[in-house]
C-alpha cells in the first residue's frame, strides 16, 4: 500500500513542481525553460518535507546542462525547486555556452546548485574547465550562471591553494617555414 502512495505522490509531484529558475534577472539561457529529465536507480519523494532524494548513477539533463552524481537531493518546499545537492566520488556538471560555442565542465565531491541565486558551488577537489581554454582547481569554486564568473577559495588550515591555468590563445597567423632547396 505504501508503494502505491509513494508512486501517486511522485506522479503528483512531477505534474505540479515548476522546475523553472526563479530570478529577478531576465533569462539568458533559453534551455532553462526546457523540462528537466532525471534518471536514477531509485527515488524517495518526501513531498511534505519538500525534498526528493535520487540515488544510483543520477543524471539530470535540462537543455545542454548535464549534472551527474551518486546521490542528488532536490529541495522543493511549496513545490518550487530551491536547490539541488549532488554528491559523488566525483559529481560532475557540464553546460554548453552558445554565445561562446564551447562547454564549461566541472567536478567536485559536492556540487550545490542554487536555483534562485543561479549559482553552482563546487566543494572538495573542485575543478572547472572552459573547453580548450582556462581551468581552475581548488577546495571551493563558485560559478555564477548570471554573469558567467568564477570565484575560488583556498583552505589555509589544510594548506590547499587554488590553481589557475591560462591556455595561450591560438594565433591566426602562422609563421611561414622556409622552403627547402633541392
Report on this model:
The chain has 182 residues and is mainly β. Helices cover 8% and strands 49% of the residues. It is built from 1 helix and 10 strands; from the N terminus they run H-E-E-E-E-E-E-E-E-E-E. Strands 1, 2, 3, 4, 5, 6, 7, 8, 9 and 10 form a 10-stranded antiparallel β-sheet that branches. The longest helix is centred in the N-terminal third of the chain and has 15 residues, at 2-16. The protein is globular, with a radius of gyration of 20 Å. Mean pLDDT is 78; it is low at 1-28.
Task: Tell me the layout of helices and strands.
Elements: H1 2-16, E1 37-39, E2 42-46, E3 51-62, E4 65-75, E5 83-97, E6 102-114, E7 119-130, E8 135-144, E9 149-153, E10 163-165
Antiparallel strand pairs: 1-3, 2-3, 3-4, 4-5, 5-6, 6-7, 7-8, 8-9, 8-10
Query: How many strand segments?
Result: 10
Q: Low-confidence spans: pLDDT under 50, at least 5 residues?
A: 1-28
Q: Please state the oligomeric state of the protein chains shown.
A: single chain
Instruction: Tell me the major beta sheet.
Output: 10 strands, antiparallel
How many angstroms separate the termini? 88 Å
Amino acid at each position: 500500500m505504501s508503494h502505491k502512495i509513494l508512486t501517486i505522490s511522485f506522479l503528483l509531484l512531477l505534474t505540479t513542481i515548476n522546475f523553472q529558475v526563479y530570478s529577478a534577472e531576465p533569462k539568458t539561457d533559453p534551455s532553462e525553460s526546457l523540462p528537466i529529465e532525471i534518471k536514477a536507480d531509485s527515488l524517495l519523494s518526501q513531498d511534505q518535507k519538500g525534498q526528493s532524494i535520487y540515488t544510483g548513477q543520477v543524471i539530470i539533463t535540462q537543455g545542454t546542462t548535464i549534472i551527474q552524481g551518486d546521490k542528488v537531493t532536490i529541495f522543493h518546499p511549496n513545490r518550487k525547486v530551491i536547490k539541488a545537492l549532488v554528491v559523488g566520488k566525483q559529481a560532475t556538471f557540464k553546460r554548453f555556452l552558445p554565445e561562446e560555442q564551447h562547454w564549461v565542465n566541472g567536478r567536485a565531491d559536492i556540487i550545490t546548485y542554487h536555483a534562485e541565486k543561479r549559482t553552482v558551488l563546487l566543494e572538495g577537489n573542485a575543478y572547472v574547465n572552459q573547453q580548450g581554454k582556462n581551468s581552475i582547481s581548488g577546495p571551493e569554486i563558485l560559478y555564477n550562471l548570471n554573469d558567467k564568473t568564477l570565484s575560488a577559495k583556498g583552505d589555509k588550515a589544510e594548506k590547499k591553494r587554488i590553481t589557475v591555468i591560462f591556455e595561450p590563445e591560438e594565433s591566426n597567423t602562422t609563421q611561414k617555414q622556409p622552403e627547402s632547396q633541392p
